[in-house]
Specification:
The complex is a heterodimer of chains A (358) and B (362).
Chain A lengths: L1 H13 L12 E11 L2 E8 L2 E2 L2 E2 L3 E7 L2 H9 L6 E2 L5 E5 H6 L2 H9 L8 E5 L3 H6 L8 H14 L8 H9 L6 E8 L2 E11 L2 E7 L3 H8 L6 E5 L7 E17 L4 E16 L8 H29 L6 H8 L5 H7 L4 E12 L5
Parallel strand pairs in A: 1-6, 1-7, 7-8, 8-9, 14-15
Antiparallel strand pairs in A: 1-2, 2-5, 3-4, 9-10, 10-11, 12-13, 13-14
Chain B lengths: L13 H10 L8 H8 L3 H25 L4 H9 L1 H33 L6 H16 L3 H13 L28 H15 L5 H4 L10 H25 L2 H6 L3 H6 L11 H7 L1 H23 L3 H18 L3 H39 L1
Helix pairs in contact in B: 1-7, 1-10, 1-14, 2-3, 2-8, 3-8, 3-10, 3-16, 4-5, 5-14, 5-15, 5-16, 6-14, 6-15, 7-14, 14-15
The chains are: A alpha/beta (358), B mainly alpha (362).
Protein name (chain A): Ger(X)C family spore germination protein
Pfam families (chain A): Spore_GerAC (PF05504), Spore_GerAC_N (PF25198)
Membrane topology (chain A): Lipid-anchor
Chain lengths: 358, 362
Amino acid sequence: MKRWMVWLIIGVLLTGCDQTKVVDDIDLVQVAAYDLEEDNLKGTFAISTYTKEGEGQPEIYTASGKTSKQILALASEKSSKPLELGQLRVIVFDKDLAKKGLKEILDTMNRMPNVGNLIYLAISNGKAETILRGSYTKEKGISNYLPSLIEQNITYGILPETNLYLFLNQLYDDARDSYLPIVSNKGNILKIDGIALFKGYTMVDSITAKDLFIFKVLTDKFYRGTYQFKLPGTPDNYAVIENIKAKTKYKMKGNSKYPFIDARIQVKGKIQEFTERKNLENPKEVQKLESVMEEELERQAAKLIERFIAKGTDPLGLRKFGRVHTRKWNDKEWAESYKHLRFQVTADVKIIQSGVTE
Amino acid sequence: MKKVPIEYQISPYMVFFLVNSMQIGVGLLGFERISAKLAGNDAWISTLLSGLSINVMIWMIYKILNQGKGNIVAIHHDVFGKWIGGAFSLIFLFYLLVTGATILRTYIEVVQVWMFSIMPTWILVGIFLILCYYIVSGGFRVVAGICFFGVLLPSTLAFTFFFPLQFADFRNLFPIMQHSFKEIIKGMQGNLFSYFGFETLLVYYTFIKNPKKSQKFAHYGALVTTAVYTYLMILSLVFFSEKQLASAIWAYLSMSKIIQFSFIERFEYILISFWAFVILPNVVLTLWGVSRGMRETFGMKQKYILPILILFIFILTILLDDRNKVNLISTWVGKSGFIIVYIYLPVLWLIQSLQIKFRRQT
């Protein structure tokens, strides 16, 4: 029995034979960016350097090539330590590349087990490289700033929920299309510019930040975010509502050949700001305000949906509603009927609070 | 047939752990993909049906064993005589052995793909098999103990089954039953292999105290497996979109990629390492079963048979050096298992029952 123990110990010790990856001996890429460069792909990788004082400015490596994996290998030839993707937080693609399609890179990321599922994807308005190269305040290097910017705006703001897993999920789902946030930088500030709409792996349209609230109402069920309404009457008359709970219920009537979408938006909110004083103790005034907001929401939402239809993309997953709720669903008929889909949007706004002042 | 001394036997309730630990193995990590390819969003019905049919087969195995005089080797000897019966026993034992090797190789493939890509197969297999030798040479009660822990320890990971729910889209399940009955039956092919392993019961039956009492525990074990598999199938269907699931080789691991804690960001690495506890009973019990069966067929001592079997598994796993070969042998094992459990065992039952009737009359 004793001899066996020796063999067991030797056996256990031998397992140390695999290549180790000690944190100090590798460079962890935290933000990666890909640009289209004529017919080449250009990759930029930001690595945080850790100094005694804490986090310093990120180091940046770039390389051009044909495939994303080759680019990483080429960039690794320039760095002092091997580049690893295990801690990747965000991948930024430039607009031109997104318009050409992201299939190759995303399939590679999906294939690699060491890339996490919850990383963010973003589209840059200009070159993706400039976003990484921008100089941001010291404690907020790009590798910290960009991921928290997106995360913060998803949880507290009006950015619809996205990440690599959700994007791929919607992409592989033949009943809906996906979307990604657009970011840009100005000086030392990053900003969310809107949402890029995809059809399969290719970007087909974009929505500006102004419409993000409506877009999120249509796609997600969410609890925060503000929206500014223009009130009728004098030209500079606005009201700001803070959302407490918003969602859209869809119903598909008819069949795949003659479909009719009935979308009901429900927003519960509290009044935050008025440019003109109104007496909110009066239920009639509140009702009036609500109906103004309802009209505005209906108009904007209808405009967005018309736009999706015109571009042939289905970010709301309407096909899925049809497939689930309609008997004898036919995907081919739907592909044809979606081009001139009839729909109706009705909004229901409820103002349940107006702050602490009358 | 000599009776197994009582100090080597196990209590009837242990059969629950033996059946359950043999069924839940490497299959759980990725059985969802093939079912989803064949039966789409109705794959969970296939999974449920497979589990229920397995229970029917367990009932039949107990019918065979209860009216026979011993385990499968003794029954073969009784029904078909020394030579033909012996040959059938050998075929069955060979199938068990290859199953064990396949399970081990598949697990090591997971380790290689997800964690240590340049780790040679033989190192992992070698260490694993040394441990197996140590356990199996301890006798059946030790093996049963390992099976007990092989259920208990991994069950602490059950919480990972609930994390993916935050991204669940239950609309994926609808419309229910849009696939034809034939497609759903076909979908069962995708997950039946993950349910196999319970047929080792045919070998260790004589080691159970009051074997007739153990039947309900065997059913409980298989029902728990059915519940776990069906739940996981539904979970994968709502977590992935259909085509995404069809391309995920290890769906369960891909799902657990979204589990994040502040102290460990990538939980799937813990999961894969922990899975060795799930694989160990599978390999150990097949090794014990095959060596015991061989002992009864040839009259050799288990001590001498075991090293030969271990060497066989060692060589076989090294020969399977790429994804295609692993896939090929998994399919082969799955098909053989299907033939043995669903075609051969009913036939055996029929012949055995007729023979008993005939003998009674004469």
